[in-house]
Structures are given as structure tokens and as C-alpha cells.
Amino acid sequence: GKGGEGGQGEKGGGGGVLRREGKPDRSSTELVDMNSAADVIPLEPGWEKMRGGIDKFTAIMEGGFRESFPLAMHSELYTCCYVMCTQKAPHNWADELYKRYGTMYEQQLEQTVLPAIKAKHGTEMLREFARRWKNHKLLVRQMWKLFVYLDRYYIKKISALPLKAVGVQKFEQVVFNQVKEEVRTGVLQLIEKEREGDMVDRDLLKQVVDVFVEIGDWRPLFPTRVGEEIGDIGQARLNTYVKELETQLLADTSAFYARESSSWIGTDSCPEYMKKAENRLQQEVALVAAYLHSSTEEKLLKEVETQLLANHQSALLDKEETGCRALLREEKTDDLKRMYKLFQRLPNSVTCGLQPISQIVREHIVDVGMSHVRKEEAEKDHSMYAQQLIDLHDQYHAMVQGPFGSNTLFQKVLKEAFEVFVNKDIGQTSTAELLSTFCDNIMKTGGDKFEGEIDTVLDKIVMLFSYLSDKDMFAEFYRKQLSKRLLLNRSASDDDERSLITKLKYRCGAQFTSKLEGMLTDMNVSKDSQNNFAAWMRTSEVNLGIECAVTVLTTGFWPTYKVDEVALPAELLRGIDNFTRYYESRTSHRKLKWIHTLGTCVLTGRFDQKPIELVISTYQACILMLFNQQEEYTTADISSTTKLPMDALMKYMQTLALSKYQILTKSPKGKEIGETDVFTFNRAFTDRQRKIKMSLLVTKVSQDEKLSTKQTVDEDRKHAVEASIVRVMKARKTMAHQQLVLEVSQQLMKLFRPDPKVIKNRIESLISREYLERDKDNQGVYKYLA
């Protein structure tokens, strides 16, 4: 019963006093027993007391919390629950309290909450649903405070469901399961309204959606239901949300955007469609942030992407006037960037994602490149072709780096596309040769100059070079042109020469550039050797009467030069003899072979008006110095005296008598030179400059040199193929024909693309020389012979 005023506390001391007053004749022992009995709280009175407190809080809650729950009542009810749970058997009511705790929720939800929700419809029903859940959570929290002793000890002891979980479970069973379909329908209708542009109450949606999430908060602790796996706790807490709301939301989203995209694709241009799709995706992200659970974002966007992008990708990219090809032609970088960002979201396959776009980009670059090739074939001068390729590469490289975000897929198609047309010959000339000539023009004095950093231009050249399949052909042409720049002193900068060689070395390895590096080293060594030769002449008291500079070359590094048995003037012979003496005094194991093809001389021509220094080749000097001995010579006389072949001599006479600088006068007049034509020294010649550079003939690669270069490369390739075959066979010992051809091709691909026929011929040659043999049982298999 309720405690009296005897000051005995809540354990019923007052009740004992009342009984004592009613029966004064009881013994003292009976009084002690009765006091002990009075301390026990019976089930029904105790529960009535608890129920009174619950009703009081419910009334306060229903009234909108205009008053607070009395603190004294809270303390009294907590103590009552504590006593009822700690009394000794048979008066321990913990088990009964736990059962009635759940029943109390059921009664309150069935009698008050559910009817209130069902009485309303549409948005008002959602609002009531959210309000009732909010209140229910407050009720559960308050009840937990009163019955907390059960949670701490009794529930742990019997492994029962925690008090808060019971509260959530009862709401789910009594209310949620009854109204969830109507609530879900209301939520989905509001979401669709927002997608159609109407204003909706986002706060309300957030509150309702949160109920679906929060109802699952205790789900991992519930007994596993039939056909439902608990799985990971973090994921399991969202089971209700996923099953009861998200699944239908995704299906509705898919249907909505299927309808919308079908109406767009027929009327909108590709850029317009992409802008709409981009906006829709941003809206969906905002929608999730506003009132859906964050785990929904990825799944929701996947549905939107499938309907807006994946299902219409081909139609979108192939639009005639505004599709991907049109955007590339018109260089619409903003639209291309948008396209990349949108389709980057999709998984990559032949028909989906970035791969179809990359193939269109590849085809476009190849088309543009091939149109350049066709246009260049119609031109006579190909000197700017390499620059056009560089400009084209700059354009599409910027596109790959900008709109396409340096994606590796687009870097790959850029490389593949350029490899297609960069390796197309322009007429009879290969791109390897044209690129080498372009380098020559940049590197030599008086050649093409570029604004800005030469290093940047060299990087671009090396990038183009990397697309060449005939890298060895480029190397051979470059070597010949480099040799002329170095020997004729035409190189503008040693640093630039070394820089380009270093870049090529980084791209193709040390073996590729070893000869080029050797040539530069020879030039440096020769400068030191020249200083030592000058010191030797001073010591030996030798006076040549002329300045003599000799460049000593290592045979293996430099191109092979034709040696003409020319009759040199006495002045030059003295220089050769003295240098030979000096060189033999330094080393006894090396033999000098004199090559005058790329030699230069500076002669002073004493003309009537003024003396002029002439920078000419050694062979031109041999011809002009004859006129110190007599006034005139016929072509035949000059040929017999100098021992120069007639065809070569004709070309030199052209430069001396019929070019811009006419040092010699020809008789009779005419553009052709005959063997009987007479030449005399032109004393009347003059020029504004005191020093002029004559045409040396050898500065450019002649047609004969082009042919010999190609022959050299073909010969080198044979050796490279043989070396590769032997390397592979030495490692494998036995190998089938197709495998051997494939592996050799892969090894050599860095330098050139080997012809399978050439590989087959080299295999036959190695068999005949007993490096390999055919398997007796299988003719298609080779064995290595040690």
C-alpha cells in the first residue's frame, strides 16, 4: 500500500504503523514479523503505482509537455521498481514487470497512436506518423529511466531483449507494420513531386524516412526471422529501411528517368541532353543529402546513370550534328569535358563508359592525321611536315590533358592514333627521315629558330619519335646529319645536342645512343688533341704557313664516308704529314685514314675591289688553288689534275661558277657544264661581306646517301634479328617457329617492326651456319646448337 507519515520510507513502514494501531494486543514478535511482511510490495499494488506514473507521463506528453514530470514521482517510481525486482522469492516480480512493460506499450499504441495515424491521410498522415514516432521515442526513454534496474541486471541475467529494443519492437509490430505501405506511398509521391519541380516539405520527408532507419536500430538484437539473414550489424540495422522503402524508391527512380530520358533523346542535342543529365545527377545527390540515408546515394545514382547515360550512350554519341565526332571537329572542350565526367561514372566495356568515346577520339585523330598525310603528299616541300605533326600532337595532347583529365585510356588512343599516320611515308620519304631533317634544321646554325625554350621543342620531337616504328632509321639519318653539323662546325649548341641525345637515351636505352654520344666525345677529344698538336709544332719548330685543324674520329661511331683519291695542294699535304708525325709519336697502335669529304677550308680571294675570305669545302679549295698556278683550265684539265671524278667535279664547278657567288667565270656561257668548258678566276667578283660561306654541297643528305642509309639500316636489322634469335634460343634451347618469331618481334619492337619473312630468312641463315638445327621429329621446332 501507499506509505504513511511514519517516516519509515517507501518500504511500507507506515503500513506497519496502521496495522499496529488496529490490533494493539499482538505480541512484539508478531509485530516484527508483520513489519517484515509490510516491507514487501505486492505485484498488483506495485504495478498500479507504476501504471499511474506511466499514465501521468503519457498525459503530459499528449498535452504537448506544458508541464514537466514531477521529480519526486520519478524517484518514487524508480524505487518501487527497484524493490519489486530485488524482493526475495516468491515476491520477486522482475519477470512479471518485464512482461507487463511490453504489454503496456501494446495497449498504449493500439488504443491511442494507431487510431490517430489512421484517422489522417496524405501529408497530414505523414506528419502525424512522424510526430507519434517522436513521442514514442520520448516515452521509451522515460520508461527506460524508471525500469532501468531491469535493464542492468534482470535482462543481462536471462539474455532478454533490452527495454529500449522492446519499445521499438512494439511500435514496429503494432503501428509501423499497419501503416508502412501508406507511408511509403506518401513518401514516394512527395519525392516524385520534387523531381517534377514542385516544392515539398523536406523536413517532413526527413523525419518520416528517419523512422524507417531508426526502427532498424535494434534489429541485430532481434531473433532472426525466417528467410532473413542478420549479416553484418552495420548493414543489418538498415534492413527495414532497405526492404520497406529503398527498394521501391529505386524502382520508381528507374521508371521516372526511363520516361524522362526517352523524351529527351528524341528532341535534345547531345550537349543539351548532357547538361540536363548533369543537373539531374546533382539534384539526386542533393535529394539524398536532404532526407535519405547516405547509403542510398550510390545505388540511386546508379539507377539514374543507367537510365540517362548507359541506355542512350550509342544514340547520344552518334548524333549527326551534335554527337561526339561533331564536338571533336568543333573543339567544344566544355562539352567534351562534361561528356567525360558523365560517362566516367559508368563501368567500362566496348559499348559502355569511356571506351566507346575513346574509340571515336582515336578514329577522329587518325582521320585528321591521314588528311595531313594526303595533303603533304601533294606538296613538293616537306620541310614543315614534322612541325605540322608537332602542332597536331599539341592540339590533341591538350585535349587529353584537359577535357579528358589525362585518363590513361585516352593517352593510349592518342598514341595508337599517331602511330597509324606518323608511320606513313610521304611519297618516297619516310617520316623518320623528315623528323631527323627537322631536328637538323633546328640544331644547325642559321637553321629554323623557335620562340621560347628549345628544350620544350626537343621534348615534342622525342614524343613524335616515340611513335615511329622505324626508330633505327631515324637514328641512322640523325647520325649522318649530326656528323655533318659537328665536322662542318654547323652545330648551334653543344648543350642542345647533348640534351636531345639524353632524351633519346632515356626513351630507348644507352645502346641506341652510344654512337651519337661517341661522336660528341670524339669532338671534345679532338679539341684537346688540336691544342697538343699546336704545342708539338711550337716545340718542333714547325711552321706550316697555314692554320691546320684535324678532327680524329673513331671508326665505329661515325658514318662510313666515301674516300676519293684527290690530289691535294702542297700546303695541305704539309699539314697532313706533320699531323701524322705528331700522332704516331703519341700512339703506335692506331692508323690514320684521311677523309676529306667533310673537310673545310678558309681561302682568301684577292679580287680587284677587295680581298674576301671564302669558307669552302676541301675539294672546292683544291679546285680554286689550281688558279694560283695558271689563268685558265678546262673541266677535263681540272679533273685530271685534282683526280676528282667527273660527276662529282661537275657539281663543285656549279657552286663555284654558276651559283650566287661566281668565283670562277665559265666560257661559253650557259647553265650546263661540259668537259671542254674553260674556267678563269673572276677578279671582278665582289660582295658586301668580307667573309662568305659558299655552298658546301655536303651539308644536306644527298639521294645517294639516303639510299646508302636505308641499305645500312637493312643490314643492321639483319644482324639485330640474328642476335635476337640467338639470345632467345640460347635461353630456351628448344622453341617452335611461331613462338620464336613472336618473341623476337617483341624484343625488337623498341627499335623497328621486324618483317616475319626477314626473321624466317635469318633463321634459315643461322641453320646453314650451324647455330640452330631443326628437330628431326618436328620440322617446325628449332634447337640451339652450343
What does this protein structure show overall?
- By secondary structure, this protein is mainly alpha-helical.
- It is 64% helix and 5% strand.
- The chain has a three-stranded mixed beta sheet.
- β8 and β9 form a beta hairpin.
- α11 packs parallel to α13.
- The longest helix is centred in the first third of the chain and has 33 residues, at 163-195.
- The radius of gyration is 50 Å and the shape is elongated.
- The model is unreliable at 1-38 and 220-233 (pLDDT under 50).
Q: What is the fold's blueprint, element by element?
A:
Blueprint: H1 13-22, H2 28-39, H3 43-62, H4 71-86, H5 94-118, H6 122-146, H7 148-158, H8 163-195, H9 202-215, H10 233-236, H11 239-267, H12 270-291, H13 296-308, H14 313-317, H15 324-329, H16 333-343, H17 354-378, H18 385-401, H19 408-422, H20 431-443, H21 454-467, H22 471-487, H23 494-508, H24 510-539, H25 570-586, E1 600-606, E2 611-617, H26 618-624, E3 632-634, H27 635-642, H28 646-657, E4 664-667, E5 678-681, E6 691-693, H29 703-732, E7 734-736, H30 737-748, H31 756-768, E8 772-774, E9 781-784
